[in-house]
C-alpha cells in the first residue's frame, strides 16, 4: 500500500508540475499572475478530446491541442496583458481571473456542462515495481514529465532563447536596451507555457477519464499556491513544490486518513512556508 500510494502521489505531483510550469515561466518573465493559464489547460483538454474523437489518434490530438493553446496563449499576452503592463500588478490579475471565468463559461456553452469521458489509451508500457503495477497512463505521466523537464532545462541553459528569457526575467528594460527582442521573447514564453498546459490537460483528461468545463478551477488557485511555495518565478521551485504536494496529498489524505479537504493542503503549505521562509523553497531574496 505504501509503495502504491507513493507512485500515485508522484504521478499527481508530476501532473501538478506540468500545470504549474507554464505559470512559473510566465510569472518569471512578465511578473504577471497568469490565473487564466488554468483555462488554457481546460481548452487544451477539450481540443485534444475532440481531435481524438475525430481522428482516433492521440498523437494528432496532442499536436493540434498544443498548436491551438500556443495561439491562444499568444493572443492573451498580446491583447490582454500587454496593454495592461503600465498599470499596477493587480489590474492584470483581475483581468486574468475574468478571462479564466470567461473561457470556462465558453467551454460550458460550446461543449455542454456535463462531464465528457476521454477514452484514449496511451502507447506506453505498464511496469511492475515491488509487486505494484504501474499502469500505462501513469507511465506516460512519468515519462512525459521527465522529457518536458529535461527539454525545458536544455532550452533555458543551452540556447539563445533561454538566455534571452533569463535576461528578460531579470530586467526587461535593460534586456531591451542590450538588443534582446523582448516582445518576441515574451510571446515565445507564452507559446511554450501554453503548449505544456495543453499536454497537461490531455494527460489529466486521460488519467481521470473525464473532461469538464470547470476542471481548471481548482488548479488555477492551487498553482498560485505552488509557485509561492516554490519561490515566485522559480521553475525548479515550482516543480519541487508540485511533487511534494502530490506526495503530501496522497499520504496525508489518502494513506494517513487525516480529516482535511484534499485541496486545502496546498494553501496550508503556502501559509507555513510564508511564515518560515517568505521567499519560498528555492526563491531568492
Automatic annotation (TrEMBL):
Protein name: ABC transporter permease
GO biological process terms on file: D-alanine transmembrane transport; L-alanine transport; L-isoleucine import across plasma membrane
Family: Belongs to the binding-protein-dependent transport system permease family. LivHM subfamily.
Keyword set, alphabetical order: Amino-acid transport, Cell inner membrane, Cell membrane, Membrane, Transmembrane, Transmembrane helix, Transport
Organism of provenance: Cloacibacillus porcorum
GO molecular function, one term: L-valine transmembrane transporter activity
Gene Ontology CC: one annotated term: plasma membrane
CDD domains reported in the protein's UniProt record: TM_PBP1_LivH_like
Pfam families membership: BPD_transp_2
Primary localisation category: membrane
